[in-house]
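User: Could you check the structure of this?
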Amino acid sequence: MAMKASERMKIDRQAMPAQDAIERSRNFGEVNLGMAERIAVLEANRCLDCKNPKCIEGCPVRIDIPEFVGHLAEGNMAAAADSLLRDNALPGISGRVCPQERQCEEVCIRCNKGQPVAIGYLERYVADWAREHRDGQVSAPPAPSGYRVAVIGSGPAGLTAAGQLARRGHAVTVFEALHEPGGVLVYGIPEFRLPKEIVRQEVDSLRAIGVKIECNVVIGRTYTIDELMKEEGYHAVFIANGAGLPVFLGIPGENLKGVYSANEFLTRVNLMRAYNPDADTPVLRPKKAVVIGGGNTAMDGVRTSRRLGANPATLVYRRSRAEMPARVEEVIHAEEEGVVFQMLTNPVAILGDDRGWVRAIRCQRMGLGELDRSGRPRPVPIAGSEFDIECDVVIEAIGTRANPLLTATTPDLKVNEKGYIVVDADGMTSKPGVFAGGDIVRGAATVILAMGDGKRAAGAIDEYLRANVKV
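Assistant: Sure, the predicted structure tokens are below.
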């Protein structure tokens, strides 16, 4: 018998079990441990099955949330998995790193009286169940369309597009510049937040439906886009190479030994396993680390520093906690792990010793002024408020920008003043048959927004091919 709405309203939101904070600050094991089945089913029964479910609109990849949650509430795991996997090629990833609290959960009707349904936790549960119980199960492939599509980049946008295109019968090859597929999912997000085995398994599921992945291929060097289309015979291209060129503050001392961009630091640790002292590409193990920034990348950097031994591991952010773009859960986890937060603080110089190594960072206190273009209060320096923080490693996590290598070799590809590729509403670039999405279009953004771009672009590419290309 179905549970009444009044009964559902009495169920409190269920907590996600997690590693002990002290223990996890010393290891790279996943922090969140996952829900037990009975807890996931109980949480799913909090859903009121709204007539007008705003959670679907709040999801960039338009998952039919009420459908998969409804099946889960009934204990029908197979149906829940069918529903979720139909809409999302990478649910085990998005269930772990998507900022649900600012998207689907934010518009959940249960927010009117208490806490929203834990949609992210439930997505993770169903994705993990499917991975454990459906190993090797592949649905029958669609009839080949005869079309060939090249996808540049194996991050969240590229993998999502590749999966959607393959399910439409297209022959898809993904070209990845690094030696392992996954893009930011493997080089940028730490193991403790997104285990790399999850990424590998979801990549393997795409291979199982026919997606080919070629690593160590740099588009702009190995091939140009024109060569892919004219010489290699691809009928369409989707550019999803991200925006991985680091940005620095431009303050004195950035050339000192011990200063990293977050990209380099996290890539060494995550992709090149530098947390192992015997790794071929080691990283400095900080005694005292300072990470600059307030987003998820900054949070990943400071929590990684803590795990490498930094005490303290300090986050410096020029606004207040209320303006931090990082996920709330990540901030809470960082606090529990002993990370020190220096809010309303802006670096002005990095100080070195007589051997050229970092010894401290000089900062200035900030106040909050009028709103800027981002809609957040503008940080305003407070005169005479400078102070130093001792450290031996500084990590700058203040954003990234587009790498010009690909666009420089495709002069008829229109870019804006910041070097990002310009696209229309369907993701089509100025070059016919070439589409783009993710950070190379948006600038640095979230995994789930990139996945949404990939899903939309796949639909547009399919329509373009069938309407304009004969095979």
